[in-house]
């Protein structure tokens, strides 16, 4: 997974072509991974993905405190999709395509407070284990 993330860094954000959900899907696809209910990101939005992922993974959804060390998850809320991994020291790595005018990034070692403030449960994010 990390190799696919690294090979897709610094890509320009393009709405509908290489935005957050398309980028996350392509990274997972290139690495041979998937999340149930998260497919065909073109022509849809994060709110639809959120509902599809929630329905397909109802027995395997997590909040940020439940993320297992070393495992990658798809994080998704009503407006953003991203990839996240929890480190053994409790920090988080976040790979994402963020917004128009930016490029895809991979932030390492984000504190739990910073992660929860930017991506966590207060934003109604759900996390599905990447298979």
In short:
With 131 residues, this protein is α+β, with helices and mostly antiparallel strands. 27% of the residues lie in helices and 21% in strands. The protein has one domain.
Structural commentary:
With 131 residues, the protein is α+β, with helices and mostly antiparallel strands. 27% of the residues lie in helices and 21% in strands. It contains 4 helices and 6 strands; from the N terminus they run H-H-H-E-E-E-E-E-H-E. It has helices at 2-7, 20-30, 46-56, 112-118; strands spanning 61-62, 72-76, 81-86, 92-96, 105-110, 126-129. Strands 1-6-2-3-4-5 form a 6-stranded antiparallel sheet. Strand 4 and strand 5 form a beta hairpin. The longest helix has 11 residues, at 20-30.
What topology does this entry show?
Blueprint: H1 2-7, H2 20-30, H3 46-56, E1 61-62, E2 72-76, E3 81-86, E4 92-96, E5 105-110, H4 112-118, E6 126-129
Antiparallel strand pairs: 1-6, 2-3, 2-6, 3-4, 4-5
Model regions low in confidence, pLDDT < 50 over at least 5 residues:
none
Shape: globular
Number of E strands: 6
Average per-residue pLDDT, rounded, comes to 92
SSE series: HHHEEEEEHE
Distance between the termini: 11 Å
Binned strand content:
15-25%
Number of domains: 1
Q: Provide a count of the helices.
A: 4
Kindly report the spatial arrangement of strands forming the biggest sheet.
1-6-2-3-4-5
Structural class: alpha+beta
- Outline the biggest β-sheet: 6 strands, antiparallel
């Amino acid at each position: 997974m990390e190799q696919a993330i690294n090979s897709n860094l610094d890509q320009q954000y393009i709405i509908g072509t290489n935005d957050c959900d398309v980028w996350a899907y392509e990274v997972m696809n290139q690495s041979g991974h998937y999340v149930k209910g998260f497919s065909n990101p073109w022509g849809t939005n994060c709110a639809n993905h959120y509902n599809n992922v929630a329905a397909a993974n109802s027995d395997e959804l997590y909040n940020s405190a439940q993320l297992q060390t070393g495992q990658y998850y798809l994080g998704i809320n009503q407006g953003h999709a991203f990839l996240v991994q929890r480190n053994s020291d409790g920090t988080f790595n976040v790979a994402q395509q963020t917004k128009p005018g930016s490029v895809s990034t991979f932030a390492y070692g984000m504190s739990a407070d910073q992660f929860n403030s930017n991506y966590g449960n207060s934003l109604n994010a759900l996390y599905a284990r990447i298979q």
